[in-house]
Request: fold
Amino acid sequence: MRYGVGPEVLHDVNFALAPGSFHFLVGPSGAGKSSLLRLMYLAHRPSRGLITLFDRDIATTPRHELPELRRKIGVVFQEFRLLDHLSVLDNVALPLRVAGMGEKQLKDYAEELLSWVGLADHMQARPAILSGGQKQRVAIARAVISRPKLLLADEPTGNVDDKIALRLLYLFEELNKLGTTIVIATHNEALISRFGHPQLHLENGELSVRAAGKRGA
Amino acid sequence: MFGLFESRSDLPLRTDASRRFLPWLVALNVYLAALALAGLMALGDAVSAWDKGLTGAMTVQIPAPVSKDGDRVTDNAPRVARALEVLRAQPGVAAANALSRSEMAALMEPWLGSAGGLVAELPLPALIDVQLRDSAGINAEGLQSVLAAAVPGATVDDHKKWLDRLLLLIHSVELVAAAVVLLVAGAAIATVIFITRTGLSLHQDVISLLHVIGAQDDYIAKQFQSQALALGLKGGAIGFLLAALTLGGLGLLAGRLGSQFLPPLSLGPLQWLLLAGLPLAVALIGMATARFTVMRTLARLP
Reply:
């Protein structure tokens, strides 16, 4: 994969994720973790190579069918990407609204999820007034509200303290137990070793898979 | 009330600066288009009124005879009577009537005033209004040759030359008015394209997010087109209202002139209805343009 006429950011990347698996995506800064995630959540098309997602070859899937595939993917962005002009509730409900769900139903779902992530008192607040940790939880709630089959998170613990980071990882594990395939890009070695899930290691644009380690305490 | 036309939006379009000036630009466009269209329709009516009034009619002019010594005008009545006799004998002539002295005075009134005595003293030619049964069967030259033999000096005018020149002028004005309507529509479309592209550029991040979470292009386009429709209707209503006031004022001024010179330049109910449809048409064009612009831009996304 390359951006415009720039150098190839990713090459010889070859891996398959089993449904319901949990992987950490690791590697030094600039290794191409975010670019790989962008390919996976279909924000970019590869300049060459093959991506198969939910048994569909992305290169041959018509453009108008891609939104349906994107709705099966939840994304937690490194910089949250919350919409400041919408309330927390509307931010979380956005994927359901885009998918065409009725207002009453999507409001019920969003309220329930926000209560679950501890933001019941902030439903009508604007994201701008929330703390980093609260924004992170809103971003995660938005990513999981449509019960995605694949959850991709780019440095989801980058802006929160260790305690919240741990809680977020437990949240992801709960989702994983419900059948969601999870890939988390992170630098947090402590978390990686604590949870011991297999790692996709990216370095110099190339990827290698490391088996699951021993789960820490 | 225009809020009714706007659906809820995930894009912060309400805060865009374009929201403030687009209605006024649309209002200006609708105002100009309404005036041009009203002019077009009024001229169209005037042309058909003139055409209808003058086709199938001719005017015969009988100059007053002068005495042998050339000093005084003699009685024109026998020549007029003879001309009427000849004219009425023509198979293509439905009616031929000489204008009375008072009708002549009324015709001269705009130039000479209402001083009846002056008109009576002037050596005016007699005028005969001729209504033709079938304009194809008789022409001015043919009628004149028949008449000249019986009444020397009589001339026949079928108004064709004057009407042709007037029609040429009016058709030119109509073309200019139609061009103005087209230019105004073009300007409105260009404005909406510019504003939509600005909106797309301003809200690139939000659009990219909506795209990633699975929004169809249509979902995003609807938000832009709803805004274009609402702002177009708002601006269109303002423009139409101003145009209606202007046309009303012009109609009042034209009414004061009287109808001797001009056919009625007022608009009928159907024409007002057509003008009232202009804001809706402009708003719909704006909506379609916004949709087309967004769909074309989004098609470039993966």
Strands of chain B lie at 57-62, 93-98, 126-132, 155-157. Residues 1-6 of chain B have pLDDT under 50 and may be disordered.
